[in-house]
Amino acid sequence: MTKPGKSTRKKEFIESGCSRHMTGNKCYLTDYEDYDGGFVSFGDGKGRIFRKGKIKTGTLDFDNVYFCKELKYNLFSVSQICDKKNNVLFTHTECLVLSSDFKLLDESQVLLRVPRKDNIYSVDLKSVVPTKGLTCLFAKATIDESNLWHRSLGYINFENIKKLMRENLVRGLPSKIFENDYSCVACLARTEQYKASCKAKTW
């Protein structure tokens, strides 16, 4: 989602990454009450949630909408919409909120199923992407970043760094493609140490 500006105070967004409905305009709320919801961080700041209420549209009501006066826009949570047994469909031109009795006509049209856990719909790439094709989904690390991890991991081979990343074996190792530019001074020094050949002996 693009970062909203000052002119978005009256705009609404359907947000798949937002776990709760939130608004920055209390005029939209009805049946509201005081509520200590703590603090929330968003793209251009943070604020405190101290009220919640309802937003009624006539065809679809939004319950438990948090009010944060610092929020310059309104967010509607996909997971919270689905909690009311509604369905949400995104297309390249619009987002549709469908009634609970909506059914898929053809299951073969489903290309990917993503389960919901803790109000988030998360994709497990290990279960849907072949291992050989997995690296194409990651951005390339810079040369400096690649060399930094190479040295931090004890001058490990770059293929082994990629394996550690793919299998998530090192905490903090970013999910990027690490490339070797063969500029590591320590590794170059090791490759230049040649053993003297032994002269052949006749018995």
Automatic annotation (TrEMBL):
Q: Which domain of life is it from?
A: Eukaryota
An example of a Pfam family matching this protein is gag_pre-integrs
Q: Where is the GAG-pre-integrase domain?
A: 120-188
Retrovirus-related Pol polyprotein from transposon TNT 1-94-like beta-barrel domain: residues covered = 13-84
Q: What is this protein called?
A: Ribonuclease H-like domain-containing protein
